[in-house]
Amino acid sequence: MSTEMPHIDPRGPKLVYVVIADHLAARIEAGELKADERIPGEIDIAANYGVARMTAGRAVKELRERGLVYTVRGKGTFVA
């Protein structure tokens, strides 16, 4: 199930930010995160996944590059 936290292995074959982005993308595709719904901020993502804020920010950037989310300055990041 997509709500289960992924195993994050810093020495694994996948980059950590990609693992996080893939997990959030799966939650979007499963309908757990709906269109125009705000996703957690970078600080919350970092805390939830046990990673640095920079890694969380890179995961959000990855989601933006995939066209799955958009960011409104001063408001947050939302599902596209």
TrEMBL record:
Entries under SMART domains matching the protein: HTH_GNTR
Keywords: DNA-binding, Transcription, Transcription regulation
Alphabetical list of InterPro entries matching this protein: Bact_HTH_transcr_reg, Tscrpt_reg_HTH_GntR, WH-like_DNA-bd_sf, WH_DNA-bd_sf
Natural source organism: Nocardiopsis exhalans
Pfam families in the record: GntR (PF00392)
Span of domain HTH gntR-type: 14-80
Transmembrane segments: none
Protein name: GntR family transcriptional regulator
PANTHER family, sorted: MANNOSYL-D-GLYCERATE TRANSPORT/METABOLISM SYSTEM REPRESSOR MNGR-RELATED (PTHR44846), MANNOSYL-D-GLYCERATE TRANSPORT_METABOLISM SYSTEM REPRESSOR MNGR-RELATED (PTHR44846:SF1)
